Every structure is written in C-alpha cells, then in structure tokens.
Amino acid sequence: MSFSFIPERIFRDVTMITPAVLRQLEVKLLILDVDNTIAPYKTLTLEKPVLEWAESLKKAGIRLYIVSNNKGERPEIFASLLGVPYIKRAGKPSPRGVRQALARTYTSPENAALAGDQIYTDTIAANLAGVHMFLVEPIKFTNFFLAVRYFFELPFRHEKRK
Length: 162
Known about the structure:
By secondary structure, the protein is an alpha/beta fold. The protein contains 6 helices and 6 strands.
C-alpha cells in the first residue's frame, strides 16, 4: 500500500487485459472504472467488443466489479449490462471503494486489479489499496478539462512506458 502515480501496466484499451494476463498475475477480481474506461462519457451502452471481452473474463473465472466515482445512474446501468455488482460514489483517489469491493468479494489485494483511465483517481486508489493497477488509454476526450487533465498525466504515463 503506497502512494504512487505510476500504474503497473498500461493498455491501449480495456479489452487488451486478457485472461492470460490476469492468470499470470493470479488476479481473480478485476475492478472496473466506468467513464472512459469501459464506455465513453455520456453513453449508456457498451460496445460489442467490451461485452464479449467481459464475457470471456467471466468464462475464465475472473470476477468483475464496477467501482466508479459517478454519482448518477451510469454505474448501475453498466453493472446491469455486464451482470456484475457495483459501487458508485467511490471517492477515488481514496481506496475506500476498492477496499469495499475486495471485502464484498472476499478477495485479497494481491489477487485483484483495477482497470481505469486516470492517474489522479484510479491509479492512486489502486496503489493505496494494494491492488494491481492497469491504466487504459481514455476512450474519448469529451471536453477541454479532461484533455488538460490527461495532459498533466503524461509524465506518469511516460514513466511507466520506459
């Protein structure tokens, strides 16, 4: 459990996190962020490749759990589409939501990973909770503020790519 801006691994998108990658690290629980990780902001559907990817993980025995800072209906909608439990208003970068998911699934931190698109929320929360952190490239920049935020994350993304 350490405060760090550096993710363990970076993936082009969430579907690149394969059962083989998870098995190699003995990950049994994959915690998912919603916005710009599994779906673009402002959409209420999942693309077919994401649905197929989630199903392949479940078939491989990997449990999925949504942990989102979103206060609205999006976490529940996407959890329903995937058939998985969820926590909204998680308060990331606080590790509280991640730890709740661990407790509710009786999973130890070393057997869990978080997939998210942001350094300042997802990566910090995962690292503080002691779970593996898989940073994904954001699906879509929807506003100037997000583009600026991702710009300030570039040094940490670059550090991991070295």
